[in-house]
Design a protein that fits this description.
Distance between the termini: 9 Å
Radius of gyration: 15 Å
Number of domains: 1
Order of helices and strands: HHHH
Strand content: under 5%
Helix content: 55-70%
Number of helices: 4
Structural class: mainly alpha
Number of strands: 0
Shape: elongated
C-alpha cells in the first residue's frame, strides 16, 4: 500500500490536533515523555518539510521504526498509578498517532 502527499498531510494535520500529554508525577514516565517530545519533534520536522516542499529524498535511514516500537514497549511496561492513568492513556494515543504518521511517511509514492 502506498500513500500520496495529500493523505500524509491529512494524517499530519490530525496528529498536530492531538493534545500533547501532560507531564506525569512518575519520574520514569516523565523521562519517557521527554523521549517522546524529541522523537515527535524530529518526525514532525521531517514530515512538515516534505509536505511544504514536496521535494524530500526519503531515506529509510531517516526513520527508526524499531525505536518507536521500543518506545511503545517501554510505555506498556510501566506500572501506572491511578494519578497518572489519564496521562498514560494520552501517551498511548499520541504515540500511536505518531507511529501511524511515520508508517505513512515511509509508504509515500
Amino acid at each position: 500500500m502506498t500513500y500520496s502527499i495529500n493523505e500524509l498531510e491529512k494524517s499530519f494535520l490530525k496528529h498536530k490536533e492531538l493534545k500533547f500529554p501532560k507531564f506525569p508525577e512518575d519520574d520514569n514516565l516523565s523521562e519517557w515523555l521527554e523521549e517522546l517530545i524529541e522523537i515527535d519533534s524530529y518526525y514532525v520536522g521531517i514530515i512538515s518539510s516534505l509536505i511544504e516542499n514536496k521535494k524530500l529524498n526519503i531515506d529509510e535511514k531517516m526513520v527508526d521504526i524499531k525505536f518507536l516500537n521500543n518506545l511503545n514497549n517501554s510505555l506498556m511496561n510501566f506500572s501506572i498509578t491511578k494519578k497518572d492513568m489519564e496521562v498514560f492513556k494520552e501517551c498511548k494515543l499520541y504515540l500511536k498517532s505518531l507511529k501511524d504518521l511515520v508508517m505513512k511517511f515511509l509508504m509515500i509514492n
